[in-house]
Design goal:
The complex is a heterotrimer of chains A (about 325), B (about 210) and C (about 230). Chain A has about 325 residues and is an alpha/beta fold. In chain A, about 40% of the residues lie in helices and about 15% in strands. Chain A has 14 helices and ten strands. In chain A, strand 1, helix 4 and strand 2 form a beta-alpha-beta unit. The radius of gyration of chain A is 21 Å and the shape is globular. In chain B, about 80% of the residues lie in helices and about 0% in strands. The mean pLDDT of chain B is about 85. Chain B has a single domain, classed as Orthogonal Bundle (MetI-like fold), CATH 1.10.3720.10. The radius of gyration of chain B is 20 Å and the shape is elongated. The C terminus of chain C is likely disordered. Classes of the chains: A alpha/beta (about 325), B mainly alpha (about 210), C mainly alpha (about 230). Chains in contact: A-B, A-C, B-C. Chains A and B meet through helix 1, helix 2, helix 3 and helix 5 of A and helix 1, helix 2, helix 5, helix 8 and helix 9 of B.
Chain lengths: ~325, ~210, ~230
């Protein structure tokens, strides 16, 4: 590892003891700032004074953190100083910080981001979304070229359920005569592609069972256990393949594409933007699922996953 | 175990953030509870409102408090100050009663003796009342320390750094070892702090040494 | 302040109250979770606490155990049990019961310890057996303290029961998370107000129960035990 944090981390016991005995000397404000980052957040920036460092944020979502780490390491390889602010809640928590300039680079997802800024948006293709995003983003922010990789909501059923009711598209759900429950994050209830949208586009009634793990293991378990018939799982989630789930097709384009789209501040110059876009250019849907699989199945850290992938792609 | 060994720096960061949030809150709770508890003890009229108010404060769910506070005190949602303030409020809610109870339990004879010796009120409070109420306040402080360290994890739902981030991340990725690490470290931190307080209590109040810690 | 006002309006809007996911139904669910958790915790903790208080054995272990249980982060227990048990009530209920046990356990034995030893000595001198001392003296005299412990436990659980929604169960937490994730702060704050209101109701009920729990002819200090 390039940064000295790993070694200094071994001094945890000493640090903890220090904190226990002399907590008067620890500044609660400063302490939180430096401690909030990732494995290497604290090490590299001490000398730089933060002036030129690019601050890279990530959502509280492991896959998003991996993408952020890809950008971070690619930028570091090109000599940029990077500060990491990972695992920042949801949009309502981190977007204000992005808008205020506290965060310079944020991996985002085109469709949902557009809807955050413009609930009435009508764009449905990745190109239209990208164009619309450039319009609605607050001053000082711009979207970079999106990746081919998308991580969008998808309605999934078990293979068994799909075969029993011969399901391939969302419209086929009309033929299912039992009550349909869908496990999803609670906000799914109000999303345009949620129950109301499904009813309008396909004439299907569902009720939401909220599980707040963003289509994670608990959502999948609920589906496999038969507690629900449908599960909203992000399309880049490796468990779709691992559990042999069937993603129902969406011919009416109810669900917005969520191409990985970095949002950057003016602190990101053209050269830095090019570095990020180079990473994005190699990020296909399959690659993103592969990265996520490393995290979920191999339990690898975002740092290690990013390092291996970037060197495999010849980007580091 | 592999997950733990592979992620030591991450765990260290989270632990550090956890301490940096919970320790100031515990200290602040003690500093605020002493005068409040004294008021509740000294002025009967205040006793009911202060103690009931404190009890109700504890009923406020922590998650919304973490979100409402920034609006009220004008900080960002993810500002560590919010969590420190919120945790302090919960700490005060628990501790005020201990302080009042402790002072209520001071034998009137001891107090009268101090008055007879001509102790001015502040000196009497600091050298007679407080030490005699000490054991009760300490046991309250221990409860506050343990529950603050434990409660600190809830901020993770909003992305405020603490060991709680190991829960939310482990939950999403389905890594039991990560969640377990967070639980074990939280309990260890809490109990270590508890032991430390007991030790400090014995240093500060040597006369309690003979008693078994409660 | 404006947001607080909107939250109050949200609470008062009658259209929010009806239906299977209305405020009325969610509040009942929330109350149900709380009472169930406290009941299960009491079924576990009260016998142990009484035994500890009656025999004086295992006090150190009980103190250590309830200390450790207090330190257990509810969110951690919830996510762990959630992953193991799946969605539904089992996971959050486990977490809430663990949350409720320390207060109840401590109150159960502290109630016995608060009984004047002279009363017990007098009873023994009159030929009371151990069982009679337990049921006729220690249990009734320790009851007010125990009710105080149940009250603390209920208040803690009612505030924490919002987390049930994190793993797919119901309760007022449903509004909290939905409001949080859709930037509907009126809903989020409103549901928090409802939780506080529910806590007030519970607190009042336990205060009455505490008064009723004092055996006739006994005057105890009004000071409740804060377990």
């Amino acid at each position: 590892m390039k940064n000295p944090t790993r070694r200094s981390a071994l001094a945890l016991a000493a640090v903890a003891a220090l904190a226990l005995t002399g907590c008067g000397s620890s500044d609660p404000l400063g302490g939180g700032d430096t401690a909030s980052g990732s494995p290497s957040a604290t090490g590299g920036t001490g000398g730089a004074g933060g002036g030129d460092a690019l601050v890279i944020g990530s959502q509280q979502y492991y896959s998003n953190e991996i993408i952020a780490e890809l950008y971070a390491q690619a930028l570091e390889a090109e000599g940029y100083t990077v500060e990491r602010e990972y695992q920042i809640g949801q949009r309502e928590v981190y977007l204000p910080e992005v808008e205020s300039g506290a965060i310079d680079v944020m991996p985002e997802y085109g469709g949902n981001l557009l809807q955050y800024y413009d609930a009435e948006a009508t764009a449905t293709s990745p190109e239209d979304i990208q164009a619309a995003l450039a319009e609605v983003l607050p001053q000082g922010l711009r979207p970079l070229e999106p990746a081919e990789a998308t991580d969008q909501d998808s309605y999934n059923v078990t293979r068994e359920f799909a075969e029993k009711h011969s399901l391939t598209t969302l419209a086929d759900l009309q033929n299912v005569d039992e009550q349909l429950k869908v496990a999803a994050n609670s906000e799914f209830e109000t999303r345009p592609y949620g129950p109301a949208g499904l009813k309008e586009a396909y004439g299907v009634d569902v009720t939401v069972v909220p599980v707040e793990d963003s289509g994670g293991p608990l959502t999948v378990k609920a589906l496999v256990d038969g507690d629900v018939q449908l599960a909203d799982i992000y399309s880049a989630d490796p468990s779709i393949a691992a559990e042999d789930l069937v993603t129902l097709e969406d011919p009416e384009n109810l669900i917005l594409p969520q191409n990985v789209t970095p949002i950057v501040s003016d602190a990101v110059d053209e050269q830095a933007a090019a570095v990020i876009e180079e990473v994005n250019a190699k990020l296909t849907p399959e690659e993103l699922i592969g990265l996520n699989r490393q995290s979920v199945e191999k339990e690898a850290s975002s740092e290690d996953i990013a390092q291996a992938w970037l060197s495999g792609q010849g980007l580091s | 175990m592999n997950w733990v060994l592979d992620n030591l720096p991450l765990i260290a960061d989270r632990t550090w953030a956890h301490l940096a949030t919970s320790l100031p809150a515990i200290l602040a709770a003690l500093l605020i509870s002493l005068p409040l508890g004294w008021l509740a003890h000294r002025y009967r009229a205040l006793n009911g409102p202060v103690l009931t108010g404190a009890g109700l404060m504890y009923a406020i769910p922590s998650l919304p408090l973490f979100i409402v506070l920034p609006v009220l005190i004008g900080t960002g949602v993810r500002d560590v100050v919010n969590v420190v303030v919120a945790l302090t409020l919960y700490g005060v809610a628990l501790l005020v009663r201990s302080v009042a109870d402790g002072l209520d339990g001071v034998p009137p004879e001891a107090r009268s003796a101090a008055v007879a010796l001509g102790y001015p009120p502040l000196r009497r409070f600091l050298t007679v009342d407080l030490p005699l109420a000490g054991p009760v306040i300490l046991s309250g402080l221990r409860v506050v320390a343990v529950s603050t360290v434990s409660l600190c994890t809830v901020g993770a739902v909003l992305g405020i750094p603490s060991l709680g981030l190991l829960f939310t991340d482990g939950f999403q990725r389905g890594i039991l070892a990560e969640i377990l690490t967070g639980i074990v470290l939280t309990v260890v931190l809490a109990l270590a702090l508890d032991r430390l307080l007991v030790a400090l209590g014995r240093l500060a109040m040597p006369w309690t040494r003979a008693e078994v810690g409660a | 302040m404006n947001q607080l006002w909107e939250a109050v309006l949200w609470c008062l809007d009658p259209t929010n109250w009806t239906g299977p996911s209305g405020i009325a139904a969610r509040s009942l669910e929330h109350l149900g979770y709380t009472l169930l958790a406290v009941a299960i915790a009491a079924a576990i903790a009260v016998p142990i606490g009484w035994w500890v208080g009656h025999t004086g054995k295992g006090r150190g272990a009980a103190v250590a155990l309830s200390g450790a249980a207090r330190a257990l982060p509810t969110l951690g227990v919830l996510t762990l049990t959630g992953l193991l048990l799946g969605i539904g009530l089992a996971a959050p209920m486990t977490a809430f019961v663990i949350l409720a046990i320390p207060s109840i356990l401590a109150a159960a034995y502290a109630g016995f310890e608060a009984v004047d030893r002279r009363v017990i000595d007098a009873a023994r001198a009159q030929g009371y057996t151990g069982t009679q001392v337990l049921w006729q003296i220690e249990v009734p005299l320790g009851l007010p303290v125990l009710v105080g412990g149940l009250r603390s436990a209920a208040l803690q659980v009612v505030a924490t029961a919002t987390l049930a929604a994190y793993v797919g169960a119901g309760g007022l937490g449903r509004y909290l998370f939905l409001g949080l994730k859709t930037q509907d702060y009126a809903m989020m704050l409103g549901s928090s107000l409802l939780v506080v209101a529910l806590a007030l109701v519970l607190d009042g009920a336990f205060a009455l129960a505490g008064r009723a729990a004092v055996p006739r002819g006994v005057t105890v200090a009004r000071r409740g035990v804060n377990a």
